[in-house]
Structures are given as structure tokens and as C-alpha cells.
Amino acid sequence: MDPQEYLRVLPELLPVLPAGAAEFASDPDHYDFGSSRCVKDLTLDRVDLVDDHGCVSLDLSLGPNEWKHEGGLRIRYSGVRDFWVRTDDDAGGAGGFGLGGGGGFVECGDEVPRLGDLQLDELLPHPHGFSHEIAFTEGALLVVGADLVARWERPASRPEI
Predict the structure, then answer these.
(1) How far apart are CA 147 and CA 151, in angstroms?
(2) Burial label, 85 (beta-carbon count in 10 A; 0-12, 13-18, 19+)
């Protein structure tokens, strides 16, 4: 839950991260828990995986926490080589699904597993570009890809009363 160790080594990682991943990781608001543009407390809304003639991309939509964020965050990963999600169940076990590294599909019964609120993320150099691990209160997500583009969405306009 504490990004201080990662932030301590981040300056050494930035020169070897792809440009988009380095920009996202080094954003001053990224790990500022008081900022409306901090990733903490976002929730996973949607994942879209596209195979466009052998070039796999992944769009991740993270929804805002109504008490903290002005808008959500969209991340587009290009050149995706691996992707997995792990959800933790109440019994302390785990279920998951993904590409690349294996695993099976989650079978959803009466209670659909949720990842919960984003707690912390780390972008690290990888032979294929970078890895992005995102820890949630009830699971985790990992993407390995060539690069990414992260954009904060504009807040939805609210009707005046």
C-alpha cells in the first residue's frame, strides 16, 4: 500500500521504460493519494482486447471514485504479449484468467467476483517493453506490452439543479 520504495527506484527505471509507460509512471499526481488524478481508489469498469491482424491491444477503463476523482482513466496498451486477472474469493483462494501464462476461466455463479478498488500499481521494464501490475482490494491484473497511452477522462457534465 505504500509506493515509497517504488518511487525511490523509479528514476532508475524511467530511462528503460517505453515513452508512454515512463510518462504515466512519472506523472506527479500518479501516487499522490490526495490528488484527483491519483490511481488509488479507481475501479475496473471495462477491458476490451483487440487482435488487429496480429497486433494485440488492450483498452482498460477505470472508473472514478465519486468522493475523489473528477473523471475516470483510460489506458490503451499496444503490442500486448501477456494479460491476466486474478480475483480472490472469500476463502482466501484465487481464481483467474488470462492470455500467455496460462490459467483457466473464472466461472461466475450467483456472486460475480469483483476486483474492488485499485490500491497500487507498478510499471517495470520487461524484455517486451514493460509490465504493469495493478493491485486491487480483491485481486490483481497484469499487462505486458510494448507501450501504453494513459488519458484521464473529462468529468461527465452534471445537470444543474
Answers:
(1) 14
(2) buried
**Spatial CB neighbours of 3, under 8 Å, sequence gap ≥ 6:** 31, 120
Q: Give, for 6, the enclosing helix (H) or strand (E).
A: helix 4-13
Using CA atoms of 40, 41, 47, 52 in order, give the dihedral in degrees to the nearest 10.
-20
Task: Give the tens place of pLDDT for each residue, 109-154.
Answer: 555 557 888 899 999 999 999 999 999 999 999 999 999 999 988 7
Q: How far is CA 99 from CA 21, 69, 81, 107, 113, in A?
A: 21, 31, 8, 16, 19
Helix (H, G, I), strand (E, B) or coil at 56: strand
Please report where in the chains the cell 520504495 appears, as a residue. Answer: 5
Q: What is the pTM of this model?
A: 0.81
Residues 143-155 have pLDDT tens digits of 999 999 999 887 6
Angle at 127 between CA 95 and CA 27, to 5 degrees: 80
Residues in the chain predicted with pLDDT less than 50, given as ranges, are 90-94, 97, 99-103, 106
Residue pair 63/72 in contact by the 8 Å Cβ criterion:
yes
